[in-house]
Amino acid sequence: MTSGIYTISQVNNTLVYVGSSTNVERRWTTHKRELRNRCHHNARLQEAWLRIGEDAFLFSIVEVVDDPEDFPEREQGWITFYDATGYSSGYNSIKAKKFSTWKKRIWPKRPATTPRTNKGMK
Question: Which of 33-47, 63-77, 97-111 is the least confident region?
Answer without folding.
Answer: 97-111
